[in-house]
Every structure is written in C-alpha cells, then in structure tokens.
C-alpha cells in the first residue's frame, strides 16, 4: 500500500494526540449543544471509562499527573462533549449516597465564571466528578511555566475580577466555602476567559479535608482549628493575588514583610514593567494585604473584592484570547458541503452508510480496474464473489463480515478500489476502530486524490479520534473538491 504524506500521515492512535489542543466539534448542531451546559446527571462508570479510554494515563490533565491524590482526566462523551473527570482516591467517600448528594448540590451552582459541574458517578469504590472541559490550561501554567509570553497585566486583573465574580455568585448560592483556592483551580476556556473550577466547591473527602497545598499558604484559622470558614476563602484569594502580582508562588508571610517595608516593587513581576500604572499596582497590593489579615474578621467580603478590582480593568473590550496571544479556532463550516459531507460533519454514521450504499461504485466509473477490464478467469470470479459478499454484508450492516471480505478483496486486487477502502473505513468506524478507518480513508485518497468522499471520511475518523482541527481541515478540503467538481460540470 502507498503512503500518503499529509497532516494525518503520522497518526498512530488516539492516545498520541495532544490532550490540550481540542476544539469544539464540527457540526452546527453539536456546537450549539457544546455551548449549553447540560443538566447535572449521574453517569454510569462504563460511560466514563469509555470516555477516558479506560482511565488511560495519556488522558491525565491534572498537573501533578498520576501522583495527584485526586487525578483529573480529559474525556469525550458519546455526544462528543469534552469533559474533565476527577477521580477521587479509593475510600475518600465511603458513603456513595453522601457523595452523590454533595455533588448534586454543587451541580446546582451554575455561572459563566465557573467550570460547571455536569455530573458524578458512584459505583463500587469509584467516586468521580464530571465537569466542563477547559482547553487552555491553568493559571499556574500561564503564570509560572509559560512558553511564549508572560501573562499580561490586563489579563491578570481580569483573572482577579472573574474569580471574584465566581466567588460572589457562590456566596449568593449559599456555597460560601471553596476548598483550597489556588492557581491550579483557575482554568481558561476556549475563548481564553478564566473560570473557577467547580471541583473546589466539593470537599476532597467525607472528613472535610480541604487543603492539600503547602501549609505556608493555608489560612491561619485552618492551621489553628482545622476548620474552613468563608473568610478562609478570602485569604486564599489573597494568595492568588500575590501569584498574579509577582508571577511567582511566594509565601504570604514573605509578601507581607515586603508590603510592610514599602518594597512593593520587589513584589512585582519584572516582566510586567511598563504595562501598568503604579497606583493600580498599589491598589491590588493593598487588596492582597487586606485579604491576608491573620484575623478572619479583618478580611473583606466578596462584594468588596468586586468593587476594588472592577475599576482596575482598562481593556474590557479586548477579548481574552487576544490578550493572551492564544489562537482561537473560529473557522466556520464550509458552506459547500454535500449531504455526505454534512453527515460526516455531524458524525451520523447511519446516514453515511445510507449514502455510501446509494452511491455504490459510480464514482469509480471509467477508472481502470480489474472489476470490469480483466480477463474472465477463475481468479477474477473469486474476486467478484468476494466483492459481492462484502457488499451484501455492508448492505446488511454486518460490518465485521464486511471488514473480513473487503480485506480479502484488497489483497486480491492489483488496482485498489477507492470505494472498497471507503466502505471498509466506515465499517471500521462502526466497529469502533477509528485509527484503521483513518488509514483506509487516506488510502481511498491515494486511489482518487480529489475524491471528496475520501476527505469527508478522513474528517469523520479524525473527529472520532478527538483531532477536531485536522478534521475541520479535511472537511474544508473535501468541500473545495466538491465545488471544483460542480464547476467542471457547469463548464
């Protein structure tokens, strides 16, 4: 078989894809569904196991990896919604009903500044939470481990404001306790907007253990009593402000020494030089200082946080992804999609099957192949019988048999058939083998380099593998060849 050099030629398996580069799915209907937060529900363990490829280590997105006490995985549900799945350590919540009740309570708290909780699972010893997926990393990554550019001042102010909005909403919903607020709990959505993880609204275990970070960053009252109170959340907000100001994770005690000594400039991130007015930086430093007061009663409330940070925002009209230098996939669906292209875009395998059945082999009419031009020999008769049995199995949706017959046929044919590869590709998809389907769709393109069907099937397989950006490119290529074909007919 020939090897087609393209952007997909190095695809090996879904495990090798980048887990942080996902974009919304292709079809307009799917996009609308993606944009709506679904109602909270209880998931079956089997569904979440499938979504995370058996809780594969390759799907872990929590920054401490498998070493984290509660690991977070990226997952993809059957409706193609991307989710984050938090898996608690064994026996964190012995009482399943208590866990579900707590999760359902958190699931009722919805806000545009929250990474909303959309479900949970409590089967056997497993305790899992399911939330919206945020594709653009954590605040920790953008502040402490950035690759291309440090987080700009204006974006840091926006983070401070959006977190305050989320906390204020939680307060109004009577969810005043947020556990272990830190830079890992702030994530960025596909637009680059910061959102506060809903996981922090849920205790890490039934015993109420709330803080897993270094004790130097925990509220004084937690160290004294082991209890978390609403004012503890304000203290933790102050530590996040220090992160935003300094670009480093520095202990509050050290930061307060600098502030008291009027050495505010020593606190500031040097990469921000020239990006802010000194009085704005001073106000944010003063707010951090108030949040970090040792006595809980001396700390401000969430309404005060909002009123203090709101005036510091100076570029509210600039989109977050622009401020952060993030690329945003805004490419619309191509308008010139055939019914097959549209079916592939919405990943409707049944519709794809119906269209391939109706099309048959007519796209290859006139192509030189032994199905019509070879001498009538016993070998050709055997080949035609194999094709016939494969087509019958394909028609009857016996896709496993179709794969077997078409595989034999491919070995027998001296000139490969694009349609056979296309039919076997769909059969592989129906059999839950998108990697092999992608290979066959690529081989169909080798046979007929400008055949839209080959591109559309590649798009479908890529989408099944979670590679939506490449899938979008393939849809566009298929649509371009579709338009070319239409224009040639008109001419």
Structure description:
The structure is a single chain. The chain is an alpha/beta fold and 491 residues long. The chain folds into three domains: 28-132, Phosphorylase Kinase, domain 1 (2-Layer Sandwich), CATH 3.30.200.20; 139-324, Transferase(Phosphotransferase) domain 1 (Transferase(Phosphotransferase), domain 1, Orthogonal Bundle); 339-490, Tetratricopeptide repeat domain (Serine Threonine Protein Phosphatase 5, Tetratricopeptide repeat). Helices cover 47% and strands 8% of the residues. A hairpin with a 2-residue loop joins β5 and β6 (126-132). The relative contact order is 0.10.
Compile the SSE list and pairings.
Layout: H1 28-35, E1 41-42, H2 45-51, E2 71-76, E3 82-87, H3 96-107, E4 114-115, E5 117-123, E6 126-132, H4 139-144, H5 153-172, E7 186-188, E8 194-197, H6 220-225, H7 230-246, H8 252-260, H9 264-267, H10 278-291, H11 302-309, H12 320-324, H13 339-345, H14 349-359, H15 370-373, H16 378-395, H17 399-412, H18 418-430, H19 434-447, H20 452-464, H21 468-490
Parallel strand pairs: 1-5, 4-8
Antiparallel strand pairs: 2-3, 3-6, 5-6, 7-8
Helix pairs in contact: 5-7, 5-11, 7-10, 13-14, 13-20, 14-18, 16-17, 17-18, 18-19, 18-20, 19-20, 20-21
């Amino acid at each position: 078989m020939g090897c087609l050099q393209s952007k997909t030629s190095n695809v090996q398996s879904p495990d090798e894809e980048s887990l942080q580069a996902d974009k919304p799915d292709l079809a307009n209907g799917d996009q609308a569904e993606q944009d709506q937060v679904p109602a909270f529900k209880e998931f079956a363990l089997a569904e979440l196991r499938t979504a995370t490829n058996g809780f594969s280590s390759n799907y872990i997105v929590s920054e401490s990896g498998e070493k984290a006490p509660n690991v977070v995985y990226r997952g993809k549900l059957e409706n193609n919604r991307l989710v984050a799945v938090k898996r608690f350590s064994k026996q964190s919540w012995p009482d399943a009903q208590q866990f579900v009740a707590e999760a359902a309570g958190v699931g009722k708290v919805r806000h545009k500044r929250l990474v909303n909780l959309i479900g949970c699972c409590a089967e056997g010893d497993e305790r899992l939470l399911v939330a919206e997926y945020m594709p653009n990393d954590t605040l920790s990554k953008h502040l402490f481990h950035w690759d291309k550019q440090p987080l700009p001042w204006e974006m840091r102010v926006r983070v401070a404001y959006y977190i305050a909005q989320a906390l204020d909403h939680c307060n109004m919903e009577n969810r005043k306790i947020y556990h272990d607020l830190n830079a890992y709990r702030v994530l960025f959505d596909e637009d680059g907007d910061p959102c506060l993880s809903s996981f922090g609204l849920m205790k890490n275990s039934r015993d109420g253990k709330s803080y897993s970070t270094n004790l130097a960053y925990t509220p004084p009252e937690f160290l004294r009593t082991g209890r978390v109170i609403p004012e503890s959340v304000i203290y933790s907000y102050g530590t996040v402000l220090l992160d935003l100001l300094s670009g480093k994770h520095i202990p509050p005690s050290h930061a307060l020494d600098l502030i008291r000594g009027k050495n505010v400039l020593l606190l500031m991130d040097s990469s921000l030089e020239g990006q802010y007015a000194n009085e704005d930086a001073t106000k944010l430093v003063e707010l951090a200082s108030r949040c970090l007061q040792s006595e809980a009663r001396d700390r401000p409330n969430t309404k005060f946080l909002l009123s203090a940070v709101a005036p510091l925002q100076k570029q509210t009209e600039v989109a977050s992804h622009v401020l952060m230098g993030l690329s945003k996939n805004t490419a619309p669906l191509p308008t010139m999609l055939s019914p097959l292209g549209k079916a592939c875009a919405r990943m409707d395998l049944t519709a794809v099957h119906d269209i391939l059945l109706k099309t048959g082999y007519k796209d290859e009419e006139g192509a030189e192949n032994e199905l019509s031009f070879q001498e009538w020999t016993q070998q050709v008769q055997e080949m035609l019988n194999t094709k016939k049995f494969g087509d019958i199995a394909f028609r009857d949706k016996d896709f496993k048999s179709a794969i077997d017959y078409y595989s034999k046929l491919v070995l027998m044919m001296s000139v490969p058939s694009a349609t056979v590869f296309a039919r076997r590709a769909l059969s592989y998809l129906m059999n839950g083998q998108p990697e092999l389907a992608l290979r066959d769709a690529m081989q169909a393109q080798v046979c007929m380099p400008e055949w839209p069907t080959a591109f559309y099937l590649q798009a479908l397989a890529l989408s099944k593998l979670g590679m939506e950006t490449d899938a979008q490119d393939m849809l566009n290529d298929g649509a371009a060849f579709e338009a070319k074909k239409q224009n040639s007919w008109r001419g």
